[in-house]
């Protein structure tokens, strides 16, 4: 999967034990902010990494991509791994493969799903978008 570089703010690696739950939202503290976390593992139907009992007992690290789709909203996307940062022209090569994907493109010779960040946020917690668009 790919994320447009224009909205990728920074990459972080955090300990799983740094994840806290506020109401129904997983969050973590980063540079003086409380950032909501969205686990792409859960969004795309693989499971729920944060409710895994083993997570609490293991000092697992999580790969986080901080994205800012709006100036008032930053979220952390939990990913399995970060492969590369690539700057190359993006041309639409295929239709969306599933909800949360804008389209498929060929990047470095590989078919890559390009994330629809707004839809991913809406799937995880629509309240976050209300804050961004009305805040």
TrEMBL record:
Show the InterPro entries listed in the entry.
Answer: CheW-like_dom_sf, CheW-lke_dom
Top-level lineage group: Bacteria
Name the coiled-coil region(s): none
PROSITE patterns named in the record? CHEW
**Domain CheW-like, residue spans:** 1-126
Protein name, entry field: CheW-like domain-containing protein
What is the organism field in this record? Answer: Nostoc cf. commune SO-36
């Amino acid at each position: 999967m790919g994320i447009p570089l224009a909205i990728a703010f920074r990459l972080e690696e955090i300990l799983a034990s740094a994840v806290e739950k506020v109401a129904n939202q997983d969050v973590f503290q980063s540079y003086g902010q409380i950032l909501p976390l969205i686990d792409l593992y859960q969004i795309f139907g693989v499971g729920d990494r944060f409710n895994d009992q083993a997570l609490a007992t293991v000092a697992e690290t999580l790969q986080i991509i901080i994205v800012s789709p709006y100036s008032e909203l930053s979220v952390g996307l939990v990913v399995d791994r970060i492969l590369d940062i690539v700057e190359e022209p993006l041309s639409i090569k295929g239709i969306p493969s599933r909800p949360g994907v804008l389209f498929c493109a060929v990047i470095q010779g590989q078919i890559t799903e390009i994330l629809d960040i707004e839809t991913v946020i809406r799937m995880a917690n629509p309240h976050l978008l209300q804050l961004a668009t009305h805040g």
